[in-house]
Specification:
It is built from three helices and four strands; from the N terminus they run αβαββαβ. The chain is α+β, with helices and mostly antiparallel strands. The strands form two sheets. Strands 1-4 form a two-stranded parallel ribbon. A two-stranded antiparallel sheet has the order 2-3. The relative contact order is 0.21.
Length: about 80
């Protein structure tokens, strides 16, 4: 999404920052299998300079993420 689109969807996040928990804004949360295997995770907290670190199991409880295999296609650069 472009910055102006995120700002409309998440007005309490700073411009250019991602919201900490997309499900609070009606957006699905997608999480890689690799991240789901970690004990703790760190993610954006709604500003460019702030982050949150929590237990992965608490993140899953709070967001009910879609856990998926996420790959990067390096041929589309």
């Amino acid at each position: 999404a472009r910055e102006d689109e995120l700002q409309r969807l998440c007005p309490d996040s700073e411009l250019g920052a991602e919201p900490p928990l997309g499900n609070l804004y009606g957006m699905p949360v997608v999480m890689s299998r690799e991240l789901a295997a970690d004990q703790e995770i760190t993610f954006n907290a709604g500003t460019p300079q702030d982050a949150v670190c929590i237990a992965e199991k608490d993140f899953e409880r709070l967001t009910s993420p879609i856990v998926a295999e996420i790959t990067q296609d390096r041929t589309k650069r």
